[in-house]
Every structure is written in structure tokens, then in C-alpha cells.
Amino acid sequence: MDLLPPNAHAIFSSRVDLNLGWSRHRLEHDLVEIRQRELAFDDETTGKVLSAIAGRHIGPATAAAVTAQTEGWAAGVQLTALRLRFADDPGRVVEELTDTDQLVMNYLSVEVLDGLRPERRGALMRLAVLDEVSAGVVEAVADVAGGDDFLTALERDSLFLVRVPGRPGWFRLHRLFRDLLIYRLRATEPAVEEGVLEAAADWFLAAGDTDTAVDYLLRGRRWTRAMDLILGLGPDPSEEVRAAKIAHWLSMVPPEVRVARPDAVLLLAIANTMSGHTRSAVDTLQRLADRRLTVGRRQIALAYLAAEVQFSPHPELFAGIADEALALLAAHPDAGPPDLMGLTSRPLLQLISQVSAGRALLMLGRIDDARAHLAAALSPAALAYPRHRVHALGSLAVAEALSGLLTSASEHANEALAVERDIGAHGHPAPADAHLARALVCIQRGEAGAGAASLAVAVAAAASNNRTQLLWLAHVASRLIHPLDLADDVEALGPPPPLVRQALLSISLREARLEGGRGALPAPATEWSAVAFEEVAGLVGAGRTAQARERLAQLRAAGVQPNPIALIEADALTAWLCLAEGHRVAAREHLEAALQRAQDDRLARPFLRVGPPLLDLLDEVPTGRAEFGRVIAERLRSQGSARSERLVDELTPRERELIGYLPTRYTIADIAERCFLSTNTIKTHLAHIYRKLGVASRDAAIERATELGLFDSAEHHDVI
């Protein structure tokens, strides 16, 4: 062939590589090689072949499904097309294609499998049981002396062997050929498959690949060995990824086998919790808690059951469970719970139970008790569990932000996020509490718009694993950052917990008060709360000062919570009441007391909730003339500026542009599209406009803007 003239060409066609010394021709670029991978059809070619043989147009989706099924193998595509030729619904035929399609199986049996030597066919049938093989695996499971030579021969003979990308030395069998081999093995030697899987597991276990070993043991129905390996796993840096895998593994074990191993059931429940399958975890843990377990195992069951509080809208159900878990840990300090993947040590169970108790109490509205539990969770032992420490710090920061301890809340939120960065937990749901705490701090300082970004991150993190409690708190924060119809759509499952119900009611009452009305109370408050504040404020605003004085005295007699925000709210409200009664000296005393308590944390919200009536008093008290007092005054003027004809000077150019859209029927999404901004940005701008206008709804904003001449009221009725 080397002596042929240049205009002569030779074509070699063979199933195997011919030993003819191609190297020199490859170097001289004289050789064009077309191998099996180049002959595989793509979707377009498959579609053309199917259409030609079937005699009808075959759509792209059907063609793609056939390509995936056959891996582009020409004969497989052709045999599938023969079935389509006589089918009324080609799409349905493809949906019903099975891995053991009779035409394909017959072809492969006659043309390939039956022509192999018995020992080679037997080895291939054993290898077909495995997803991927290497020389070592071949020697371990197929009774072959030279694994490398065996695989090289298969590849040379084009026996449907495919190299695994990115894993040198590893191969897999073509899907259709593998299906035939497995089908033949099960028909001729049904007892062999499980033994092959166990032998492969032994090989992978010796190679240090425990995960693959577990997979093969489970497929081989070696339940005891598989569970032994799973229960022996140690801590893993990627806990959530490993948890999802463990949940999958243990769910493959028959329930009647699994139930005999309490540790396996416990680990399944823990893994389900960490991988987001909370309902299944709760059911499992509740059944376990009712069983006769050892004390150590019961400690595990109660601690992780209490942790489910963050996924439930019913904190009252879990507060008692958390108390029971803590009591059991205290009563049996030497119980020695079994070690399950490093997630069941006594200090960690203590940390989980304390945080769960704190979260339950927080959602029940017992904020001071919640702070105590969450602070106790941050013992020195908690340093060994950085991800759980992020949870504890963030939850404590939320409780502190709601209490008015804003400096401490900021410090704990920042510490949580610093730990998050150190452990590389970006995108993990654990920091959701810390981001929400940051948003709440901004709201409490009267800088609601500045908290929008933190709130968005908190919502995304909490929604990633359906943390219902946190999503409800985020909904409250959203209502405070974006008034009324601008509130973000923060979805939370189930009814709101008591803390959230109180907060939402107080927001509704305040909105009614600002509109000049008074919202209906379901029942008078029995102790100081945000709702009690609005109840008294509504009476003062309506001029019913005697009744307001009586209610305030009743609430003070019942006891004002010792947290800063409650004391400040009570004094700020009393200052307004005294002012309304004409007792200016007493009003100044109460306002000064409130400002003194609030200034270190720059807690502005109690004064902003009272509103502009406090403005005149600020210049008459020492703290009111200091920096913090001037900030409060500025924000109160901003609230009262709806009655100032100079308001237009306070709007930014972008706000002046957006205010023109208020009278239209455009939604927020429509406005965002026309302004080339995101919907969240539009919401933030409109929230600022509402605040500057001193209103709480779009209709009220239109009315006030018309009064100020910000647009012609005659025009907006005709805008569509």
C-alpha cells in the first residue's frame, strides 16, 4: 500500500484494530480514522434516519429521546425506527421503549453475544452488573487474570466498551449491550449477580471508596454489611451532601430490616432533617421517642425532634420537647449516646436542644426567655461545631434585635457571618438568621430601606430548606421595609406563630391609625406588647387621653418586660400622652428617659412609631439636642413632611420619575420593566416615596402627591 501512487486511496473497514503499523501515516497526516464514537448519530441525524424509515416526520423531542436511549448507535436507531414505522403514535412508542426492546436484544444476541467465546461472554455478563470498571475490578469480579489486557482486547474488538471521561483507566459498557448482558445473566445464572456486587464492594472498600462500596452492597441486598458501613461513617465537611446520600442509602433498606437497628433509624431521621425532608424526619423521630430506647438514644431522638421547630408553624409543640431533651441531658450526663457521623456528641445535643428551645420561645413571643436559652447555647463547647454555632449566633442576634439590643445583635450577626466565611458555607441556609437580624437592626434604627438587601439574602437562604418560622419573621420585616402593597411575597407554610401574629396585628393597627381610623382589636392586651402599644397610641391619637391613661396604668401594673425596647416604648408613649394632656414637664421627663435608654443602641423605631407629636419636645431635652436626638428629629420630620409644601425638594430625581407612575394601572413589574430596574429596587424607591409622603398605601400617595402638585390630578384618571 505504501507504493501506491498519490491518486490511489485505500479503505480499510474492520470491527477490530488491524496491526498494520499506522503510526508513520498518522505522523504524516496520511490517515483518516473514523471510529465508533465518530459514527454515533447526533439528534439531527437520528431524526433524519427515523423519518426516512418510518415514512413520517419525527419531531426533535422524539429523536433526542431515541439518541439518548441508543447512545447514537446506528443499528439501534434503525431498529427503533422499524417500530415507529407501524406505530400510530411515535411519541408514545418512545416513551414506552424499554431497555430490553426485543428487536435490539435479538440483534445484539445474534450478531455480537452468541459469537463470543464462553469465558469472555461470562466475564462480560459479570462486568455488566457494575456501572464502571477498571483493570482491578475486572480481576476481582470476573475471574480474569490480566484486567488491562482484557479491557484492551474489548476496546480493540469494538465490543461496546466506552471510556469514562476524566477517569483514565475506567470504562463502561454501552447501555444497550449492558442491558442485554444483565438480562442474559439473570436468565442463566440468577444467583451470580448479588455475589458480583459484594465482590465489587470488597474491592472498592479496599481501595478506600466507601461510598461506592455501600452502593454495591445495597444493590446486592447485603443489608447488614451496608448498615455497618453507613453507621461507621465519620464527620464530613459537606454535611448536607453526605446527609442526602445517607438518607437515600438507608431508605433503600427494607423497613423491617432497618427497624431492628435503632441507630440506623436515628441516622435516617437526622439525615432527612439535614437534607430537607422534615416531615419524614418528624414522623420517624416521634415514633422513636415513643419507643423503649436507651437513654443515650432517647437523648438523640428528643434533641433532633426539638430541632424541627424551625420547620413548623407550631412552636408550642416543640417548646416542651426541647425542655424534655434538656432535662434528659441534665439528668443523665454519662448516658453516652452512640456516635452517628459525628452528629450526636453530648455537647452538640446540648447545643441543638438549647437553640431549639430558644427558637420555640422566640416564636411564642417570650423573647427574654429565648435570649437566655440562645445565650446559654453559646458555651465554649459550641466552638467545636462551627455550623451549629452559626445557627445559634444568628438566632440570638434575631432575639436581640427584637429586644432592642441592637449593638449586641449586630455583633452576633457579624460573628455568625464571619464563621460562615471561615467554614466556606456560602449558599448554606445556616446564616439566614444572621442576615434577618441585620435587616431587623436596620428597621429598629429607622433605616428600613438599608435592610432590604439583607432581607433578600435571608429569605433566599430560609426558603432553600423551607424554614417556616424564619420565613414568617421575614414576612414581618418585609411589611416594615415595604409598606402594604409593596411587601415582598415571602411565602411561609401554615399559620403564623404567635410572635408573628402579634407583629402583623400591630402593623395593621398602626396603618389604620395613620389613616385616621382605629383598627379593631380581637381582645384587649393583658401585658405590654407591640399590640398594646398600638392600642394606647390609638386612644391618644383619637384624643381619648383619660382612657389611654387608664389602659397604660393597667399595662404597667401587669409589668413591662425588662428588655430595652419595651421600656423605651412605654416611656415614649407616656411622653406623648402627657403632652396630649398638657403636662409638658412630665412629657419631657419620660422622653428623656426613653432617649437615654435608646441612644447607645441607636434604637429609633419606638419614637418613629409615636411619630411627629414628639418632634417639638426633642429640642427641650438634653439627649434630644445631642446627635442621636437630632437623628430622631430628622426622621420624624421626614414622617411629618407629608404636610409640608417643601416635600418636592426632598425627592430624588429617580423618585420624582417614579412618582409619576403611581396614578397609572402599571404593576410594580410593569414599572420595573419600563425603568430597566429590578422589582426589588422599585419597591425600595416606592417605600422611600411613601415614607416621605407620610402615607401607607398607593391611593393615599396619589392623593397626597396631588395636594402637593407633584402631578396634575386631571391627567391620571385617563392613564391606562
TrEMBL record:
Keywords: DNA-binding, Transcription, Transcription regulation. It comes from the Bacteria. Residues 644-709 form the HTH luxR-type domain. Pfam families: GerE (PF00196), WHD_MalT (PF25873). InterPro entries: Sig_transdc_resp-reg_C-effctor (IPR016032), TPR-like_helical_dom_sf (IPR011990), Tscrpt_reg_LuxR_C (IPR000792), WH-like_DNA-bd_sf (IPR036388), WHD_MalT (IPR059106). GO terms for biological process: regulation of DNA-templated transcription. GO terms for molecular function: DNA binding. This is LuxR family maltose regulon positive regulatory protein. It comes from Microbacterium kyungheense. The lineage of its organism: Bacteria, Bacillati, Actinomycetota, Actinomycetes, Micrococcales.
